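hi! just following up on the protien thing from before. the input was this:
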Amino acid sequence: MDRATFNKRGWVKLPYNPELAQWVKHTRPEAVKAAKHPETRANWLRSQGTWFVGVDVLHDYAPLTGPTLKAAQYAMGQDHFDWGKGQFSTCYKGYPKQDTNETGGMLNYRRNRDFAHLDGLKAVGPSRLRKMDEFHGFILGIPLNETPPEAAPFVIWEGSHLIFRDMLATAYAGISPENWQHTDITEIYQETRAKIFKTCKRVELHARPGEAYIAHRFALHGMAAWDKRLDGPDDGRMIAYFRPYWQGGLQGWLED
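and the predicted 3d structure came back as:
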């Protein structure tokens, strides 16, 4: 992995790796099986059937090794961590469509801003106050099938990880890490996100099976709309995502 590029841009694409291609070959059937399970499908199908979110449905998979593991260790800042369960995100033609619990404004944000967000930051309560509820180490995306680049690709804003790191350092200054998850950072987050939209380059990432991409834990990212001119594939755009939780003190999560 090009570490200098990762540090600067907040993401890097991992080139084709035969080991990972074999991992994809063995994992894809298990992922599809999990997505077709009636209970799982009922829990995770969103956007009027155009997106299967699939959080934590991947648990029966082989260990990730080789260059993929090394890249993850660098992005994490730790050599040993629990990969946890994986996400199996499948997007279909027509995404996004308005969900029953979505306002028009939320749908427009999904369409026009890729539903850009900072991982782990949740909207809490009726006022949708933003609080950091989960502390991840990185985001690893592994495509499980061949798709056109316009099929709802992963989107990232280059350099946003540096801006968000400064934001979090400011927001949590003088606050004990054990209280970070209870700290409302709505205003500073929205101001910083607006700055990122204006100053950072928006990049759509596409990869083929055997390739992957890894994003910094503080990068602003989202998912683009499915190009209206694109008809297939019928199986949708299938990607396995891993977002392991940070191991150890949260001060290291912010500073390492």
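The helical segments are 3-9, 18-36, 38-44, 66-76, 104-112, 160-171, 186-199, 250-255.
The chain has a mean pLDDT of 96.
cheers
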